[in-house]
Amino acid sequence: MKYLELKNDKIKSIELFDIRIPLVHPFTTSFGTETVKTGVLVRIEDSQGYVGWGESSVMADPGYSPETTETVWYILTEFLIPLFKTQIKMGKTNIPEMLGEWEKIRGHEFAKAGLESSLWALLSEQLGVSLGEIYGATKERIPTGVSIGIQKSLDELISRIEMFLSQGYKRIKIKIRPGWDVVPVQKIREEFGDILLMVDANSAYSLSEQHLEALKKLDDYNLMMIEQPLRHDDILAHCKLQKILNTPICLDESIHSVEQADLSLEMGCCKIINIKPGRVGGYYNSFLIASHNSGKVWLGGMLESGIGRMHNIFIQAREEFKIPGDTSGSDRYFKKDIIEPPVTVDETGYIEVPRSPGLGIEVLEDVIKQHSLKHEKIIF
Ligand code: OSB
Ligand code: MG
Fold this sequence. Notes:
This protein has 380 residues and is α/β, with parallel strands linked by helices.
């Protein structure tokens, strides 16, 4: 990344929005069912009126990550924004340097990603360049896929996959859990042949004999990867499992830092990392993980609103991202997104990367306000 310094460090205000947007279809994983998209949006404005939007795409309960919308709000208002305010008062402009000092606040990666992403967006507006230019995007369009939750029946699963394939999505990920794994995968192979297929267990398995038997059977279906089969913080167990399976293991929940990503790949605990900027503390850390591990990373999703979705599109337009990600079109999640135009996937499974300045879209502030549970403005 070549632009690292805010051009104007006179910050006027930061606004936070706790958003709740109904999903068009419930999303069921091994840890629960989501019917509403949650998260905290960050709007930063400088003295010249330039505005940067960021998103912390965190869930309302700690089923996926220890963080929640409430902890993100608390850490932002009580610790991160006050620390950032002192950095601004001291005249700091270098974003990675500021991020380094945020390490005084341990963990809370989703909270950090919310504020951090607003700074990159602000910088792109101040410089009048695309956020893609800030993030080092080189691709004009990105290949992408869709993550399909656990369904009530096999028939429903098959018809959902049929629908997404007909819309152009080329890579299908299905959520699995014990009892919903080998049979759905076998059925998908029967129905759709050799499509790009992968599974995500969200930590629902252990190394017990029964679970191992199911995981070993999955090895026969030429899956692109098995995402986070085992306990959220048990990297060693994944090392043991990767030695048994031919299918690449991809880590999601286990990875919260650049160091954990590098370690897991280097030690052979996985072959692929799902980079979620929220989970690793932001887009700069996502860039570092990608640049250390080119070709072994892809960009995951947290049901982002249009704002986080645009950030995600720009970062995965970097060349290190060679595997299609979980960034689907806006209509896969929402009746109306909070950006205009919404994100669309073409009939060949690609999303165009905008080139106009900033996020490349218009942010619909009144739609955001309609969907906000809480709103707070912090004056600098
Ligand atoms: O495990 O990748 C996951 C969504 C919420 C929480 C965890 C996960 C997911 C997804 C959806 O798989 C990806 C998306 O479409 O945004
Ligand atoms: Mg996952």
